[in-house]
Fold this protein.
Amino acid sequence: MNKIAICFEDVKKDFASYSNKVVLTGNPRGQEVVEIEKNPEYLASIGVETELPIVVIFGGSRGSERMNEVFVEALEGFADKNYHVIMVTGEVHYDKINNQITNLEKSLPNVSVFPYIKDMPQLFQNVDLVVCRSGATTLTELTALGLASILIPSPYVTNNHQEANARSLVDQGAASMILEKELNAQTMLAEIDEILLDSHKKEAMAASAKKMGITDASVRLTSMIHEIM
């Protein structure tokens, strides 16, 4: 083992015995996302037309049953908010969630629900706040783009690494976190309101995320490979 490449500075402590081998390269995915040109027509192309700030909620490619449940519980609370909510349920959960929304008597013009978003980086380019799990690739995209986020770590992963990932952003002021055991309609609504309805807080969080983004990750990674070779 010649080198250990890491994405976030905080991870160094996990390799204390190999400190001379640790290299902060970032994740090359960050560079890929930054290079994607923003399409101002993207939201309209998926049927979202609004002048309001936008929050997207998703639980990964397959969705999160618990996050979907909380979203449904929070629906009436979202109805009168001065922002637009995009919920990505995951394909296996979509019919159930969509039926629950359809059965509501209250109109929800500021809520859009999708089973799956193929081009998530393009969606990220067009929103103001993201509520999501805290896998390493997702966090790389968020920090590369400088996006404020509310992280809900999955408790079902090895060594609880998603919570550790989330804390690396929270400690830098780049995100807030809700543990799944504390997640409910009230906590979700309160966190979204606190960030999305306070432009100063949102901008500060986004700036901190951007600062963490290592946009020259591919350069650093290439340098490390040359050093090894």
